[in-house]
Amino acid sequence: MLSKIYSASCFGLDSFSVEIEVDITNGLPQTAIVGLPDQAVRESRERVKSALKNSGFSLPPKKITVNLAPANVKKEGPSFDLPIALGLLSASGLLKPDTLHKVIFAGELALDGSLRSIKGALALAQLARKSKFTLVLPYSNSREASLESEVTILTANNLKEVVSWINGESTLKRLNTHWLSPEKNLETDDSTDFSEVKGQFHAKRAAEIVASGEHNLIFIGPPGAGKTMIAKRIPSILPDLSQSEYLEIVKIHSAAGLCANGHLLNLRRPFRSPHHTISQIGMVGGGSFPRPGEISLSHHGVLFLDEFPEFRRDAIEGLRAPLEDGCILISRAKENLVFPAQFLLVCAMNPCPCGFLTSPQRACQCSMNQIHNYHRKISGPILDRIDLHVEIPAIQYKDLTNQNVQESSADIRKRVNHAREIQQKRFPASFNKTNALMSVKDIRKFCVTTKNGNLLLEQAMKGLQLSARGYYKILKVARTISDMAESEMIREEHIAEAIQYRTLDRNWWG
Ligand SMILES: Nc1ncnc2c1ncn2[C@@H]1O[C@H](COP(=O)(O)OP(=O)(O)OP(=O)(O)O)[C@@H](O)[C@H]1O
Ligand SMILES: [Mg+2]
Ligand SMILES: [Zn+2]
């Protein structure tokens, strides 16, 4: 007997529908899965057999063929386990056929028949809404799927529950699809609040500038200076997420399989900190079944690259295009995919391999050659794209033991929100545009400097031999600094502060 079950799978961030046909005929007992399955789909044969047996169903010893249509698209992952199991039961006459109409099933089966979460549940929910199908999902995917409204989503814990629902013997839990209100979930986590960072006002000021204008930043300092500590707290001073930003973030994380059991649904901006051994594909995305890389997982949040010079060169170079475009294009033989990647890049490095080159307390053990090689690892084009270069000295004992209350993230965020409002008024035509994203034309129009400011800029250009990009970066950062000071004109002191954030242009180590 022949049966047909509807399912869906993800490609990139979006999903496409898949029909699962199962044919059971007389012949040697064997099972074949066709229709370009990957290894995980092929292995589903064994999982499904055990899950069916352990859920109390027995299949006749016959020849079984499972076809995943459309047959010309590669299928990945274990999410077809549930629909394949249902297809087998249906082809054996164990399911009422009328309920199967207009329902998409997806879920991985454990050997005991329970359902495990799948990747891309939010994209599946969007597909179900568009095609007006009901969606049946594992219970552990509930929270991410519930963000999609105007769609019927049912969740189950195991295969047996789904079978009894199809046969009209019981009901399944229906998801309340809703939007979580951002205000409700914004209580900051005390463990990552700026109030914990003692002293280091220069670095905190830089963090505030970065958050206000969406600039990129590199911290340079000795071990233990607090580079990692401050970087981790930057998301806590970024503006609140809008609903559309939040949905974009969850969709990317859902496609990467990182949302099961409600992870990342706390409405905070992502903070990603990949290890320096990460591959280029891990960083920018791609692969035979294209996955979002770290740059997309930090969309609307912070990508923190600790020990920056240790990263692989190709992984770093891969950041160049997305830093300018806010997205990454993954080229495929048949079609191209675009993953969003608008992230705030924060890097950290020591000034030399031993870490103490700039330390007044400890002597540096490195040779000149070692220091040069260390710095050569970070290429000029990447440094050029980083707006603020900030030196963090080791914290002084008196600062560390100071009992004064430090400013909290919530207080800093208020000022950041205010600076963002000024930028929103400046660029009314483009939602959420920031100073860092200004084009050269925008810079000419909006970065008007005082006469003295101009003179200073000219001197810096000559003295520091800045590139054109370096010049524009100074103007953009100065624009943000003057917005923070609520000044329409960019004044001399704003330019002076922006210039001092170009440390690495000055070859200060050599
Ligand atoms: N300004 C500070 N206020 C309070 N604690 C601090 C400060 N700076 C550093 N610390 C403490 O020192 C620890 C180490 O800091 P952190 O890991 O940020 O250093 P780092 O600069 O990243 O060093 P490395 O170069 O070794 O990675 C922190 O976990 C924190 O407990
Ligand atoms: Mg560190
Ligand atoms: Zn050294």
Automatic annotation (TrEMBL):
Question: Ranges for the Mg chelatase-related protein C-terminal domain?
Answer: 407-502
Protein name, UniProt field: AAA+ ATPase domain-containing protein
Q: Which GO terms describe its molecular function?
A: ATP binding
Q: Which domain of life is it from?
A: Bacteria
Concerning InterPro entries, the annotation shows: CHLI-like, Mg_chelat-rel, Mg_chelat-rel_C, Mg_chelatse_chII-like_cat_dom, P-loop_NTPase, Ribosomal_Su5_D2-typ_SF, Ribsml_uS5_D2-typ_fold_subgr
What does the organism's lineage look like at the top?
Bacteria, Pseudomonadati, Candidatus Omnitrophota, Candidatus Danuiimicrobium
Recorded hits in SUPFAM superfamilies, A to Z, give: P-loop containing nucleoside triphosphate hydrolases (SSF52540), Ribosomal protein S5 domain 2-like (SSF54211)
Q: Where is the Magnesium chelatase ChlI-like catalytic domain?
A: 193-399
Q: Name one Pfam family in it.
A: ChlI
- Check the record and name the NCBIfam families matching this protein: YifB family Mg chelatase-like AAA ATPase
